[in-house]
Amino acid sequence: MPEPPVAIDPADWVCPLPLRETGRIVLGHGGGGVLTEELIENLFLPAFGTGARPARDSAVLDVPAGRIALTTDSYVVQPLFFPGGNIGDLAVHGTINDLACSGAMPIGLTAGFILEEGLELDVLGAVAQTMGKAAADAGVDIVTGDTKVVGKGGAEQLFINTAGVGVVPAGVEIGPERARPGDHVIVSGNIGEHGVAILSVREGIDFGTVVTTDSAPLHHLVAAMLAAVPDTAAVHTLRDPTRGGLVAAAVEIARSAAVGIELDEARIPVPGTVSSACSFLGLDPLQVANEGKMVAVVDPAHSAAVLDAMRARPEGAGATIIGRVVAEHPGMVVGRTAFGTRRVMERELGEQLPRIC
Questions:
Q1: Among 168, 199, 222, which residue terminates a domain?
Q2: Helix and strand tally (H, E) in the chain?
Q3: CA–CA separation, 201 vs 217, rounded Å?
């Protein structure tokens, strides 16, 4: 004989949708329904400004004459907030700088968010506000995006994926394979600050002073460099020394162009705070990440003009020539130490400092 049906009290029903008054991300925020719409309209759009276009699956951009540069990147840095910035402005600056390394001026960015269930909306709002301000300050719009929510433990609070579109002006030909023997190697300023800033917060290490990230957009600096020379082809290579730092950038250039690079270590600008922190931790500051610095390889006939143009802008005020490209030892980077000795510089097998971007 079948069991009688169990009576269910409507008062015991539980709605599968969370309350809208929640102060944290819930799975419903990624479901494409009302909660998703409210998150976009009440948090992201006010933060990103009028350039965002939420009603379309793709943005339609007016493109000036020229070639298109396209880049994509993902940001998983921990902690989300660090001295001088957070994951939001870091994502904007990093994407812009990838375009700038091709000589491109950005015309639009995308922002995709992977959010962990339970993330505080105040935290997400602070990141989005910073992201929107960074884009506005750089003169570029965040034009479209996406939001997904994963269960607790599926992400570390939040990850950001970006894409950037830029236009490369006519005549600009920049790439790591274009470095030539005789070229000068220029760095735009102090190195190692971003990696040490992240490490100090992540590990709770007090270095006796606050080391601030160098995160900054570099497209205006690149434009000034190109405008300083009669022939834009004089700027052969640009590279932002992020993961792996200056050494990784130099090795990539040397191998791409099948040339050697010699660096004068005494001329490389390493702040005392970064040097002390790296000595304490057993790190090489030349392999610590940067997020607002540029390595340029320039025709020696025009390097003085490029250097002056860089120093005239705040992003390049500390620019200096740190080495040269040579025909010897192709694919290798050699450093000349302060003691007059020479050493081969090679990338680390892995990363000294994980999750710096």
A1: 168
A2: 9, 13
A3: 23
How far is it, in rounded angstroms, from Cα 130 to Cα 140?
A: 14
Q: How many CB atoms lie within 10 A of CB 151?
A: 10
- Written as tens digits, the pLDDT of the chain (357 aa) is 444 554 545 444 444 444 466 789 999 898 888 889 889 988 999 999 866 665 567 888 888 888 999 999 999 999 999 999 999 999 999 999 999 999 999 999 999 999 999 999 999 999 999 999 999 999 999 999 999 999 999 999 999 999 999 999 988 999 999 999 999 999 999 999 999 999 888 878 777 788 899 999 999 999 999 999 988 889 999 999 998 999 999 999 999 999 999 999 999 999 999 999 998 888 899 999 999 999 999 999 999 999 999 999 999 999 999 999 999 999 999 999 888 899 999 887 766 666 778
The two beta strands, 158-168 and 105-116, are antiparallel
Q: Tell me, yes or no, whether 20 lies in a domain.
A: no
Q: Rounded to an integer, what distance in angstroms lies between the CA atom of residue 109 and that of residue 106? A: 8
Please report, for the domain that includes residue 187, its CATH number.
3.90.650.10
Question: Tell me, what CATH number does 50's domain have?
Answer: 3.30.1330.10
Give the span between the Cα atoms of 353 and 330, in whole angstroms.
28
Q: How far apart are CA 118 and CA 25, in angstroms?
A: 5
Comparing C-alpha atoms, which of 73, 82, 63, 312 is closest to residue 215?
82
Rounded-to-integer distance, Cα 159 and Cα 88, Å: 10
Q: CA 252, CA 333: separation in Å to the nearest integer? A: 9
Spatial separation of the C-alpha atoms in residues 264 and 83, rounded to whole Å: 30
Residue with tokens 């709770």: 204
- With residue 305 as reference, give the H or E element that holds it: helix 303-311
Bridge partners (DSSP) listed for residue 71: 164
**Residues 40, 152 within the same domain:** yes
Q: Are 244 and 348 in contact (CB under 8 A)?
A: yes
With contact defined as beta carbons under 8 Å apart, do 91 and 158 qualify?
no
Task: State how many domains the chain has.
Answer: 2
Residues 6+ apart with CB under 8 A from 195: 245, 288, 289, 290, 352, 353, 356
* 291 vs 167: CA distance, rounded Å: 22
